[in-house]
Every structure is written in C-alpha cells, then in structure tokens.
TrEMBL record:
SUPFAM superfamilies in UniProt: Ribosomal protein L29 (L29p) (SSF46561)
Keyword Transmembrane in annotation: no
Matching Pfam families: Ribosomal_L29
Family note: Belongs to the universal ribosomal protein uL29 family.
Gene Ontology biological process terms, A to Z: translation
An example Gene Ontology CC term for this record: cytosolic large ribosomal subunit
InterPro entries found in the cross-reference section: Ribosomal_protein_uL29, Ribosomal_uL29, Ribosomal_uL29_sf
Keyword Mitochondrion on entry: no
Protein name: Large ribosomal subunit protein uL29
Keywords: Ribonucleoprotein, Ribosomal protein
Positions of transmembrane segments: none
MF terms (GO), sorted A to Z: structural constituent of ribosome
Source superkingdom: Bacteria
C-alpha cells in the first residue's frame, strides 16, 4: 500500500504541468508546516499524515528533477501542439 495523498500518485503528477506541480508543492509544504506546528503544541491527532505529506513532497521533487534531466517530459498543451 502506497503512503500519500489521493491525487498525488506518480501518474497523476506526471500529467501535471510545471506550474501545477509548483502549486501542489507549495500546498504540501504549507500543510507540513501546519502539521509540525500542531505536533509541537500537542494537538496533532493523525501522525501518519506527516509521513504522507513528506512523501508527497518527495514525489513532486522527483518528478521535477526527472523533467530537468530529461527522463520525463512535461505534458504538452494544446497551444504547443498547434504550432
């Protein structure tokens, strides 16, 4: 069983463009900050969520890096296809 958020599987991330990946990364980092804050104040109830968010962040970074190296390609948009 994979640990992570629904909608952030490698196949789903691969279908996102770079801007959407940046948005997802920002949301995940914000959520991790809030989870860490809740943990520090003793209010965190779901400790497994921290692990899932960390893995989501790692998945996003992996997809971005693979695109930089040319291992994966970003999905083409219809505007680029028309050229």
């Amino acid at each position: 069983m994979a640990i992570g958020s629904k909608g952030l599987t490698p196949a789903d991330l691969d279908a996102m463009d770079d801007e959407r990946l940046a948005e997802e990364l920002s949301k995940a980092k914000t959520e991790l900050f809030n989870l860490r804050f809740a943990s520090a104040t003793g209010q965190l109830e779901d400790h497994g969520r921290m692990k899932a968010v960390r893995r989501d962040i790692a998945r996003i970074y992996t997809i971005v890096r693979e695109r930089e190296l040319g291992i994966r390609t970003a999905p083409s948009t219809q505007e680029e296809d028309a050229k």
